[in-house]
Amino acid sequence: MKWEVPFINLRKVKSMRRVGFLLKVRPDMLTEYKAHHQAVWMDMLAALRRNGWHNYSLFLRDDGLLFGYFETPDSLQAAQAGMAREEVNTRWQALMAPYFENLGDASPDQGLIELEEIFHTD
What does the alpha-carbon distance between residue 60 and residue 35 come to, in Å, rounded to a whole number? Predict the structure, then answer.
């Protein structure tokens, strides 16, 4: 039996941009915040995938510092713009807003602080 290796046109494969960001969860609300993320709505997960939020992870420190990471084909701004058009995101951001410090009038997904990637290895 002869095995054939499929041809992959590398010029058409778009690399993913890695995005890291910070937010601050209120320390008195950490348990509730974590519970919401154990049961993220299926339609929210589908919206994230549709809008380029891949390999998305959240990491939470005991004092409420939240580090988020995802990969996207374009940019943080493009991924945010796509989610802004999703009705489910409007509901999720309204639910999450009380959990965060220092957002002002911004929703959590608009109040995050993007970090500069300075190194990675594959």
Answer: 13
